[in-house]
């Protein structure tokens, strides 16, 4: 409770009503979004000496050393990312063979290194879980039901809860995790000998082909062909020959060399590509997700014909240096649509699915690295996965030269002619290792190369449109997007552009430059008009945090829409607000219901076995590491809320709301346990940015 209020809040503080403020008014530490995106202090050329006043300077921080009393080395160790964090894969103690787990016979027989004894496995297996319905929750501790007690244990298999519902079975009519599923009681039947068998729901299975199966699987054979450089790349080979300097053109054969993976390797490590911990991307031993490649969504089907190999063949015959016009491709009709920005780690498929449910029209996968795609990396190809609910979906690729990016585009187009609505070229990534390799935002300062990349990728993609995501420039005071963007659209033929209104050097603490975004839109439109070209969609990005903000920025700058990133991470319902042009005072229970949705989507994607449950838990905690930053708008003196304001310590309108505002990573684990059952004793969550790892010294009331 507020003991010393009223006190004047410092400028830049979230205007929380006095009755919700707790004993002190110092704002919470500014969350480090640069670290969350993967940007280090060296990227920005600034030290964290400009760290805002934070609660580590306050007494009562759990016995930890105060910020002021730390040595420089200790401060350095505290700031930025938790680089050493690792997430261990949780497994069952007794490992059951995947074939047997699915009711099949294992050809390896006694040679198989996994158990074939279902009864022994079920006896040793941790007990079933269930995702409680939202009606079982209240606003007061303990908030939800005790998941350690099974509702209706099976008479002979006491670990199996016959009252549970398996989220995968509920959607797909079958569960690919079979006996290994932690929601097994949701899909068992009694065998003739009193044994357990696996149930199937044929009606659901038929429906699921259109609504539930994820799309865009490259397949093991293609990965192998990529790895061994046997994947045919006629369009790229021709294009790279055509753009090669005259002395090289005829002398040596063009080799698309994806074996030079040192760049990709270290970048991938630095980025901690989310899929590396994604059990859905794990190989052969685990179940192959149900039929996917030939699943087509209704509306996608209509475009299939337009995107057949013929378009590719035509592209190959084109004159090499003449860009393919966006008018020759599937047009992107993006006006008035909402766009969830690509987000490494946190913009995974379950999160995108949640945002789609809440109104996001366009979604884009996490950034993947072109050399890793070409090396057939399983993790990279898992980033291409799409849920059928994603109506307009693209994948994002980063790379430093046509030799990587054009072939990657060719493989994408060949493998997923109906599974991708666009491919996005990353020209904005600020991360040191990406930038220093000449990828991401480094391309902003390499116009000639950028042109060759865009023209080549457009050709290789055939009917699939290429879009480009930019920052305003590399260095502060040296914006150059206004010069590049008209060329990207009019000269090189990209089909859409998105512009994050910051330079590479600029940190999130300074606001995006929306006036400059407006100047860039104007420059593009002038050039298009002068050359009688149809306008391509331009989306702006930066700091959008409310419906009011969205529409003011759209109207003020002339963009066709806004690509939302952190706003969606903190409040995924921002898409509903934008569409309905209202600010939503969402209740804590409504928010909890969205967390429940995320848990179910996560189990569907990452898996419902022990490994999948804990991968879901990990990504749920990653999501909560942003969502706790939401200050309920019913607590505010004035609207709209702003993303760059810092929250003073506050309490919610009830205990659940207070819990959801906790910055303590242990509380995020606690929330995950409400839906996923107790975290294993060996499991821990370390957030990406250290300000969170420090725990909730703010004392949320
Ligand atoms: C955690 C995080 C991950 C991001 N990952 C990517 C990415 O993979 N690709 C990309 O182009 N931008 C990425 N970005 C940048 C965002 O897409 C967006 O351009 C930027 O955050 C500005 O928008 P905002 O102010 O709405 O957050 C990331 C940003 C954050 C905070």
UniProtKB/TrEMBL annotation:
It comes from the Eukaryota. Keywords: Flavoprotein, FMN, Metal-binding, mRNA processing, NAD, NADP, Oxidoreductase, tRNA processing, Zinc, Zinc-finger. Pfam families: Dus, zf-CCCH_DUS3L. Residues 91-119, 161-190 form the C3H1-type domain. The keyword Zinc-finger applies. This is tRNA-dihydrouridine(47) synthase [NAD(P)(+)]. Catalyzes the synthesis of dihydrouridine, a modified base found in the D-loop of most tRNAs. Specifically modifies U47 in cytoplasmic tRNAs. Residues 276-292 have a biased composition (Low complexity). Residues 47-57 have a biased composition (Basic and acidic residues). InterPro entries: Aldolase_TIM (IPR013785), DUS-like_FMN-bd (IPR035587), tRNA_hU_synthase_CS (IPR018517), Znf_CCCH (IPR000571). It catalyses: a 5,6-dihydrouridine in mRNA + NADP(+) = a uridine in mRNA + NADPH + H(+); 5,6-dihydrouridine(47) in tRNA + NADP(+) = uridine(47) in tRNA + NADPH + H(+); 5,6-dihydrouridine(47) in tRNA + NAD(+) = uridine(47) in tRNA + NADH + H(+); a 5,6-dihydrouridine in mRNA + NAD(+) = a uridine in mRNA + NADH + H(+). Residues 1-87, 276-295, 305-329 are annotated as: Disordered. Belongs to the dus family. Dus3 subfamily. GO terms for molecular function: flavin adenine dinucleotide binding; RNA binding; tRNA-dihydrouridine47 synthase activity; zinc ion binding. PROSITE patterns: UPF0034, ZF_C3H1. Its cofactor is FMN. A zinc finger (C3H1-type) spans 91-119, 161-190. Its EC number is 1.3.1.89. GO terms for biological process: mRNA processing.
């Amino acid at each position: 409770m507020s003991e010393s209020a009223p006190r004047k809040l410092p400028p830049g503080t979230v205007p929380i009503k006095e009755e919700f403020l707790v004993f002190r008014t110092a704002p919470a530490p500014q969350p480090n979004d640069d670290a969350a995106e993967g940007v280090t202090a060296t990227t920005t050329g600034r030290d964290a000496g400009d760290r805002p006043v934070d609660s580590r300077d306050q007494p009562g921080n759990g016995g930890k050393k105060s910020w002021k009393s730390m040595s420089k080395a200790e401060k350095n160790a505290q700031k930025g990312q938790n680089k050493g964090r690792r997430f261990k894969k949780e497994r069952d103690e007794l490992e059951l063979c995947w074939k047997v787990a699915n009711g099949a016979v294992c050809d390896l027989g006694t040679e198989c290194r996994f158990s074939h004894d279902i009864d022994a496995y079920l006896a040793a297996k941790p007990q079933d879980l269930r995702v409680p319905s939202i009606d079982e929750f209240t606003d007061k501790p303990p908030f939800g039901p005790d998941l350690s007690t099974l509702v209706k244990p099976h008479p002979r298999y006491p670990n199996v809860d016959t009252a549970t519902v398996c989220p995968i079975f509920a959607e797909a009519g079958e569960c690919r995790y079979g006996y290994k599923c932690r929601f097994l009681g949701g899909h068992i039947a009694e065998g003739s000998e009193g044994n357990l068998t696996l149930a199937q729901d044929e009606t659901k299975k038929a429906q699921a082909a259109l609504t539930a199966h994820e799309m865009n699987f490259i397949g093991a054979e293609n990965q192998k062909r990529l790895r061994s450089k046997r994947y045919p790349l006629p369009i790229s080979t021709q294009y790279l020959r055509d753009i090669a300097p005259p002395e090289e053109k005829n002398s040596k054969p063009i080799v698309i060399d994806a074996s030079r993976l040192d760049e990709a390797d270290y970048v991938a490590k630095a980025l901690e590509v989310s899929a590396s911990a994604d059990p859905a991307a794990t190989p052969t031993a685990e179940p192959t997700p149900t039929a996917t490649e030939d699943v087509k969504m209704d509306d996608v089907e209509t475009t299939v014909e337009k995107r057949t190999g013929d378009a590719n063949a035509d592209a190959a015959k084109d004159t090499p240096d003449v860009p393919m016009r966006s008018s020759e491709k599937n047009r992107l009709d993006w006006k008035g649509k909402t766009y969830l920005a690509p987000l490494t780690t946190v913009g995974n498929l379950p999160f995108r699915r949640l945002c789609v449910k809440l109104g996001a029209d366009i979604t884009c996968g996490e950034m993947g690295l072109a050399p890793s795609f070409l090396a057939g990396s399983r993790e990279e190809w898992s980033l291409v996965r799409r849920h059928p609910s994603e109506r307009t979906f693209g994948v994002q690729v980063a790379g430093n030269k046509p030799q990587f990016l054009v072939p990657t585009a060719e493989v994408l187009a060949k493998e997923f002619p109906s599974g991708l609505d666009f491919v996005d070229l990353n020209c904005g990534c600020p991360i040191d290792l990406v930038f220093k390799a000449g990828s991401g935002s480094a391309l902003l300062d390499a116009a000639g190369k950028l042109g060759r990349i865009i023209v080549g990728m457009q050709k290789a993609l055939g009917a699939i449109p290429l879009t480009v995501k930019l920052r305003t420039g590399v260095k502060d005071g040296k914006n150059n997007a206004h010069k590049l963007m008209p060329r990207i659209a009019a000269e090189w033929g990209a089909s859409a552009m998105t512009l994050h209104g910051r330079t590479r050097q600029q940190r999130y603490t300074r606001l995006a430059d929306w006036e400059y975004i407006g100047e860039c839109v104007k420059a593009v439109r002038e050039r298009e008009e002068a050359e009688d070209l149809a306008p391509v969609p331009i989306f702006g990005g930066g700091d959008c945090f409310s419906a009011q903000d969205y529409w003011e920025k759209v109207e003020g700058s002339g963009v066709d829409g806004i690509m939302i990133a952190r706003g969606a991470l903190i409040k995924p319902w921002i898409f509903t607000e934008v569409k309905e042009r209202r600010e939503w005072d969402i209740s804590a229970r409504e928010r909890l219901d969205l967390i429940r949705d995320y848990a179910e989507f996560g189990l569907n994607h990452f898996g419902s076995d022990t490994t999948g449950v804990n991968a879901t838990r990990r990504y749920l905690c990653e999501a909560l590491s942003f969502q706790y930053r939401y200050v309920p708008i019913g607590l505010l003196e004035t609207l709209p809320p702003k993303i760059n304001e810092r929250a003073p310590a506050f309490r919610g309108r009830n205990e659940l709301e207070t819990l959801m505002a906790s910055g303590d990573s242990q509380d995020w684990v606690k929330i995950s346990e409400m839906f996923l059952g107790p975290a294993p004793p060996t499991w821990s969550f370390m957030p990406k940015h250290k300000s969170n790892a420090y725990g909730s010294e703010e004392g949320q009331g």
